[in-house]
Amino acid sequence: MSEVRLHWLPWNPVTIANDNFQLPDFRFVNLTFERKVHHYASGSWDQLQISFTFKRLYGFYVLQAYLLAYLAVAISWISFFIDSKSLPSRIILGVNSLMA
Fold it and tell me: Exposure winner among 50, 58, 85, 100, fewest CB in 10 A?
């Protein structure tokens, strides 16, 4: 602070171009900030602490993780209904479910 003093805008030091931006699996909810001055042995330092709050969108995980995992398990169970003498087709289904 002896060489450089940072003064943040008193009403809103952080601006976002678009408040409705969205990530594939998160939605932006809130932004909070806090101005601090930290005192260290080398001197005092200005700090602006910013916290972004996001809400998780569960549809992404249901479609991309859970649904595909359940589908792979269901496909692996098909091999139990195939005739036991038809070994190549059972092996192909088992290997494909493991690879998926």
Answer: 85
d(CA 53, CA 88) in angstroms, rounded, equals 52
Cβ–Cβ under 8 Å, residues 22 and 60: no
- Find all residues with CB under 8 Å of 96, minimum gap 6, and list them: 75
Q: Tell me, what's the pLDDT at 1?
A: 63
Structure confidence at residue 100 (pLDDT): 66
Q: Domain coordinates of the chain in residue numbers?
A: 1-56, 59-99
Tokens 């195939």 locate to: 82
Q: For residues 78 and 72, is the Cβ–Cβ distance under 8 A? A: no
Model confidence, pTM: 0.53
Using a 10 angstrom Cβ sphere, with 0-12 exposed, 13-18 middle and 19 or more buried, the burial of residue 46 is middle
What is 5-38 written as a DSSP string?
Answer: -----SS-S---S-TT-B-SSEEEEEEEEEEEEE
Type and span of the H or E element at 60: helix 58-61
